[in-house]
Amino acid sequence: MKIDTPKVLRTDKLSVQLENGFLRYIKWDGKEVLRMVYYTVRDENWDVIPQEIESIEINEIDEGFKVELNVKTVHPQIDFLWRCKIVARGSELTFDIQGEALSNFTRNRIGLCILHPIETCKGKTVTLTHGNGTTSHNHFPKHISPNQPFQNISTMHWELGKVTVNLQFKGDVFETEDQRNWLDASYKTYCTPLELPFPVLMKNGDKIHQTVRLSISSEDDVHGISKKDTYQLRLGDKYFQLPLLGLEANTEYLGAYSLEKLKSLPLNHLRVEIRLSQSDWRLRLNQRLQQSRLLRLPIELVVYPYKNNHRKLLCFPWQGLQISSIIILSEKEKVISRSNLKNPLNDFRKAFPNISIGTGTDFFFTELNRNRPDTEGLDFLSFSSNAQIHASDDLSIIETAQTYTDVLATAHTFAQGLPIHISPVTLKPRSNPNATVSISLEQQRLNRIDIRQTKPLTALWFLTSLKHLAQDKATQVTFFQTLGEEGVLMADRRFAFTDFSIKENELFPIFHAMELLGRYSNWKLLQCTSSHPLLFEGLVFEKNQKREAILLNFTNKAIRLQVEGESFVVSEKEWKVIAIG
User: 431 Cβ partners below 8 Å, 6+ apart?
Assistant: First the structure.
């Protein structure tokens, strides 16, 4: 049973959005106090196991509501049943889960997770009670914490104005991580602690019982968004430049139509990846370089050295090609060590003296944050990112875009003034650095495919992400591939994935979004702020005292926005270009 329409449930001042058995946007008097409460099963590779509601019952009770539901995992080897009860009365809410394994399987995590919104929690003092009864005082981190800021939690409370939020946990040991490391817009309190061994064997008949209790006390002076408030895009007075934009080359055939379309995009470079441990690296390199030659784009060369094979690149025939930057990474290390970086860096520096050379990680910002490199001799730092490490629903994807603000702010604290490149940015994870069980290359490819690559959501997420990347000083960014399932238009063949009914050469919405940016190549990006950034966003451009805006609607219904006193209607999950003034 899939419940597509979220349902808002309320007490007097407490409101929640019930969505597929989870609670989202828990608010007190309109002010968000928790982003989400949910339960999860994650397998030995940290993959989230899909779940399906078998039954649900929602009832009004005295001063509140009660929800009871049964939920089962949807997986051929992992069979697990949840029995959930959610009860809210007045200023209190209890989320109770009882689970039972109906098969033998291994897991890395199982149980409740609570998400804390960044906007209302960042920097706030939090008081923790630990398992041994002691208390401590801490803060929700401003810059992104590389490791768990809070551990061994049994209760926590913090203040939002004169509202005090209290959480009590039972059934396991909980700790908190900073999910901005993975681009999520939240801190997450979860169980079981990562310091304990995993994966863990769950046997048929094993049971768990966990409870989280939220209680709120208030002096009634904090008010959220009133129903009379309008959706407004407010303009600021600062100006920014968009980061240099590129795509990743792949081995797809670049026909005349695809070539013509890709040439119309405002691209600065093409990412070309070379793994020198592969016996056919020359063939793979030449296949990708062919796209660069045809598109006549500079190359962002990404090199994974193997022994001293990188020196073969020094005498490679680069004639007719322009390398704009080189990223040196490692296949065996999440962030290449200084000892393994030394020889490639020195050799490339001598061979390409006028080209920017950097390093970082091919994985998430987490790895760069935890393994901050020595910046001596480097021209920039780089990391990759994607929108779906912990959640894959549309709302969670949109939420990640604004997290680039904190990611870049944190990166600049240890980059020693170096520019920040992000390469590549994808919709789904490209690989799993923490997997405990290996999977085939073909399965890895299939895991990267998402039908929403062909939908407006990805274009809206791209434009919103680019706004935050520009405002927070990313220098260069590579989004998606050129062609195919992970690209901006369909290649000259059909998708192998049965869920895709895409015609050859079809242009995806993400293509049109990138094409639109070409209109503003010589314009400045003007600072602007959305009154409801989870519902809509905007990009405002200015040139010669002329202003235009791209308005983005993330919702499933048309909304009316106010910009500089004028009113505009934007259709559901669409964007609209307007003139201002």
Answer: 362, 363, 444
